[in-house]
């Protein structure tokens, strides 16, 4: 589904040069639950952002369903990010001035869905995720775990094939983290491919494939 070939990412130049990724090669198949693990600063977020087409490699190519993504137009990349991929971040990244329901509606507004459909779907997604009684709450009125669940509902709004998650439990207590991980597990069982970054060893049990990074290098791929 996604293939990365000879990916390098270099930030800056001269004395300020950082080689964040060194010749990464990997494949992600449909239906997998992939975890990218390694210590802080080893290049995990950089790799995730490149696989999600949020960033471009300095060298190398990312293929999506056999297609070279470097030849996609900015518009095609935007469509990929809006419809193929859903994104979840450590800091939730909800819009503070919008309610839970409105945050979930947002990607559907960008996708030009009509208002009635948007409201109905946003409500259903929040209900499924256990927040049916929090539709009109603003992010600051919700706990971290609840905010991350709103972010998951938002990521699901346009029916993505893949969820990209960067340390989605990084700011949560272990109980809220387990709720979020179980939601991701259920989504994966329904066929959504998950690509997740973590540095927490105890989360590896959820993965079907583990990609280990160290200092920008891929040191091991474990398939379960
Ligand atoms: P991780 O997610 O594993 O913590 P990152 O991908 O965030 O690692 O970072 C990998 C390396 O690249 C680090 O040395 C980091 O400081 C550097 N880096 C990340 N983003 C940038 C950037 N925008 N500009 C310069 N250096 C960066
Ligand atoms: P979760 O399991 O989703 O993380 P918590 O157990 O942390 O939820 O929160 C329990 C209850 O406390 C929730 O119903 C939530 O509305 C409320 N709550 C938690 N944190 C806050 C906060 N910062 N502001 C307002 N209400 C909060």
The number of distinct structural domains comes to 1
Q: How far apart, in Å, are the first and last alpha carbons?
A: 18 Å
Q: What's the CATH first level? A: Alpha Beta
Looking at CATH, which topology would you report? Rossmann fold
Beta-strand portion reads: 25-35%
Strand order of the largest sheet: 6-7-8-3-9-10
Low-confidence stretches: none
Question: Looking at the structure, what is the overall shape?
Answer: globular
CATH superfamily: P-loop containing nucleotide triphosphate hydrolases
- Major sheet: size, sense and barrel closure? 6 strands, mixed
Helix content: 25-40%
Q: How large, in whole angstroms, is the Cα Rg?
A: 18 Å
Pfam families: ABC_tran
GO molecular function: ATP binding; ATP hydrolysis activity; transmembrane transporter activity
Protein name: ABC transporter related
Domain ABC transporter: 2-224
List keywords for this structure.
single chain; 224 residues; alpha/beta; Rossmann fold; six-stranded mixed β-sheet; four-stranded antiparallel β-sheet; 6 helices; 10 strands; binds adenosine-5'-diphosphate
What order do the helices and strands come in, and which of them pair?
Elements: E1 2-11, E2 18-28, E3 33-37, H1 44-51, E4 59-64, E5 67-68, H2 74-84, E6 85-89, H3 100-110, H4 115-128, H5 144-156, E7 162-166, H6 174-189, E8 193-198, E9 209-214, E10 217-223
Parallel strand pairs: 3-8, 3-9, 6-7, 7-8
Antiparallel strand pairs: 1-2, 1-4, 4-5, 9-10
Helix pairs in contact: 3-4, 3-5, 5-6
């Amino acid at each position: 589904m996604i293939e990365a070939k000879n990916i390098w990412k270099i930030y800056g130049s001269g004395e300020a040069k950082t080689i964040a990724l060194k010749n990464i090669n990997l494949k992600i198949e449909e239906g997998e639950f992939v975890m990218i693990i390694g210590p802080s600063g080893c290049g995990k977020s950089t790799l995730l952002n490149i696989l999600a087409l949020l960033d471009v490699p300095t060298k190398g190519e990312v293929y999506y369903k056999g297609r070279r993504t470097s030849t996609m137009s900015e518009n095609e990349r935007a469509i990929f990010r809006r419809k193929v991929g859903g994104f979840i971040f450590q800091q939730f990244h909800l819009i503070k001035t919008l309610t839970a329901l409105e945050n979930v509606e947002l990607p559907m507004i960008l996708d030009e869905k009509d208002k009635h459909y948007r409201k109905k779907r946003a409500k259903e997604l929040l209900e499924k995720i256990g927040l049916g009684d929090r539709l009109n709450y603003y992010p600051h009125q919700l706990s971290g775990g609840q905010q991350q669940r709103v972010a998951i509902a938002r990521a699901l709004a346009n029916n993505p094939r893949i969820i990209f998650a960067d340390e989605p439990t990084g700011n949560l207590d272990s109980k809220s983290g387990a709720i979020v991980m179980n939601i991701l597990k259920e989504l994966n069982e329904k066929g959504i491919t998950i690509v997740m970054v973590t540095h927490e060893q105890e989360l590896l049990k959820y993965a079907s494939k583990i990609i280990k990074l160290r200092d920008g290098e891929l040191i091991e791929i474990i398939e379960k």
